[in-house]
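Tokens for chain A. Residues wanted.
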């Protein structure tokens, strides 16, 4: 057996224990994930199939009004989160976030197209027809005309009437 020199790496006898900093980061990450779960609706929470104790703790956190008590409850949720495998939960929340981002993007595109159609007239309908071949131009002209008439009829600024909402729904269906 040879003597170790200071330059030699330490021998690993078994699995390395995480450092205090690593454990602390993991605890904070679990607590942050728990806070994301608190923000979910009940149906979304149930779909994750969490352990009953964790689900109850999350529901209790929603009812707490006191700031200090809420902080303690979030810490408790973080503690419960450290006892389970959080990767499926992270994946489900990431998929939900991606879905929400796509939905927001579709909403913005439909809103943008509605405004273009309302201000651009037939040129905008032609552009939409180039984007979506087979578009019924007569029907779209009717929708745009009704929405334009509704806007010029003097509805309050910033509001959209039934024809504008119908145009928006049709655009979402077309673009989605």
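Reply:
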């Amino acid at each position: 057996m040879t003597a170790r020199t200071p330059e030699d790496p330490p021998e690993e006898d078994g699995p390395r224990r995480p450092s205090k900093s690593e454990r602390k980061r993991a605890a904070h990450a679990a607590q942050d994930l728990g806070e994301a779960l608190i923000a979910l609706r009940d149906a979304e929470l149930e779909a994750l199939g969490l352990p009953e104790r964790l689900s109850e703790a999350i529901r209790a956190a929603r009812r707490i009004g006191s700031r200090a008590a809420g902080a303690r409850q979030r810490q408790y949720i973080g503690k419960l989160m450290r006892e389970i495998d959080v990767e499926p939960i992270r994946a489900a929340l990431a998929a939900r976030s991606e879905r929400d981002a796509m939905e927001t993007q579709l909403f913005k595109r439909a809103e943008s197209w509605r405004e273009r159609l309302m201000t651009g007239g037939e040129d905008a309908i032609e552009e939409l027809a180039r984007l979506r071949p087979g578009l019924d131009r007569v029907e779209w002209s009717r929708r745009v005309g009704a929405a334009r008439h509704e806007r010029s009829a003097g509805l309050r600024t910033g509001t959209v009437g039934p024809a504008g909402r119908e145009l928006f729904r049709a655009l979402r269906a077309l673009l989605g």
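The two ends are 71 Å apart (CA to CA). The chain has eight helices and no strands.
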